[in-house]
Hints:
Layout: H1 2-16, H2 29-41, H3 44-56, H4 60-73, H5 78-94, H6 102-121, H7 126-139, H8 144-161, H9 168-184, H10 188-216
Amino acid sequence: xxxxILPTLVAVLTLAGCSREFPETPLTSEEAxxxxxxxxxxxxxxxxxxxxxxxxxxxxxxxxxxxQQAVKEEPQDMEAKAWLAANDCKIAGRAGPWLMGFDKLxxxxxxxxxxxxxxxxxxxxxxxxxxxxxxxxxxxxxxxMARAIETRDSLLKKIETKPNAYPPSAKEAFFKxxxxxxELQNDPASIHDYSQRVLSLNIDKGSMQKAKExxxxx
Length: 218
């Protein structure tokens, strides 16, 4: 019994004495304009996008309010649910010690479960999978890193099998997420491999743009 409890206690002690900072960053001028337009529209999709913007800039409380409302409006929107779960993981991460950290531990466990349920409901949704991949890698608890690596490998196989099914922006986001996993795992080979993929992708995009400009100039 004692041995079975030990890993959980170690996790609790690790979480109990610290909270993680998520410093807010300002929106760019373009994002601020987009944010105001979305707020004026006042519909579900706009709220989800507002929540995503707030999440990306660590405006955690704003993101929480927007995404909670979005999930309440449309419980079957798995992208909204995934963004909310990822934001809940940030909330758990910033929480200070309380009850020896058990509340923090529960918060991490709960947000990861919400992410898993979103993926189970929408297993082919690229955005949902990317949210889970990135969040699981950063959290790195309850086997989440192994799950992030499994998701990375599965997505890479899909991209390599049907490369034209994914726009360059999606591929770039995936490769950069894979680089981040390599950094967290201290895996220079993986970092180099995915960095080269990003470089090749950007070269391809540059070549396409030059070709387009050449055609337009004729």
